[in-house]
Amino acid sequence: MNMNKKTIITILLALVAVAGQGQVKCHVEGTLETDAWGDEIIICEAGTDLRVVDEPRFHVKAKDGHFTYDIETDFPRLYVVFFLNQYETSRWFEGKFIAENCNVNVTMYKDKRIHIVSNGEEGRKHAVKDSIEEVRFWNPVEEIDNKLENPDRRAEFYKADFISTISKARSLNVDSLPEAYVDSVRQVVNHYMRNESEQFTAQGLQLKQQRDSITSGIRPFRIAYAEEHPMLWTLYDVLDAIQALKHKSTPCFGRFTMYLMPSKLSNMQTTM
Fold first, then answer.
1. Banded model confidence at residue 244, pLDDT cuts 50, 70, 90
2. N or C, which terminus of the chain has less Cβ within 10 Å?
3. 3-state SS, residue 129
4. Torsions phi, psi of 239, nearest 5?
């Protein structure tokens, strides 16, 4: 990452200044716009692996579609929020916010990105960056995704063999099948996911390449914006970039529906 050292130093000094202000108290209020994923929410510090560390304090129960949560910490930290049941499917939408002396409002949906509004200083700075990013990148990406995910246009953008293979894979009851058979299906699916030319028709491949071209500009935009507008969020973006380099994504069985499922994948997390 080609980030200006002065930018990093400025952000670190800001972090030290904020940390010296004493205990941070953040109040979170949330609204569920769907009951499809139940009423249990996870709120925890970013980077927490629930498979390794899962504490009762991470679990929040919504009542009548609403929940509240209070965070006390030593300095502003990045937190994440998501549906527990959605997380357990290995495909989930994750909202992020910095816990600072502020109020945070969270709105959660069935199949689109979590909306978060913070009245904290860092939250407001990040919201400005997000609004620019939304218009420049995510709105065009969403327009393309809506085309690719339209079931009425599936045959226009995806090859028949790919559609047939994915449909069969989705219908399998993995738990009741021999492991060797599941592995063979996984290999076929992974082959398709590694070879876009075998997934897409010419029209579909053109759309996918347009999408890739748009999203390839996101990280350079974030780096350039951070150099002009230092903020604590940048440190977490740097950490995300390091994690991405350490754990480069590879096609896997858990991802095989990413172009066929009717969901917006911008902020969706995926694990095996």
1. low
2. C
3. helix
4. -60, -40
d(CA 154, CA 196): 15
Per the CB < 8 A criterion, the answer to whether 211 and 145 are in contact is: yes
Residue showing tokens 């860092």 = 122
Tell me the residue length of the chain.
272
Q: Convert 153-185 to b/e letters by CB count within 10 Å (16 or more is b).
A: ebeebbbeebeebbeebeeeeeeeeeeeebeeb
Q: How far apart are CA 84 and CA 77, in angstroms?
A: 21
pLDDT of residue 109: 96
| DSSP character at residue 110 | S
β-bridge pairing 102-108 and 24-32: parallel
Q: Which two tokens stand for residue 53?
A: 């560390």
Helix/strand/coil (H/E/C) assignment for every residue in 202-267: HHHHHHHHHHHHHHCCHHHHHHHHHHHCCCCHHHHHHHHHHHHHHCCCCCCHHHCCCCCCCCCCCC
Q: Are 108 and 32 in contact (CB under 8 A)?
A: yes
pTM, full prediction: 0.67
Average pLDDT, the chain: 82
Is 104's pLDDT higher than 60?
yes
170: tokens are 């989705």
**pLDDT digits 0-9 by tens, 60-82:** 999 999 999 999 998 889 999 99
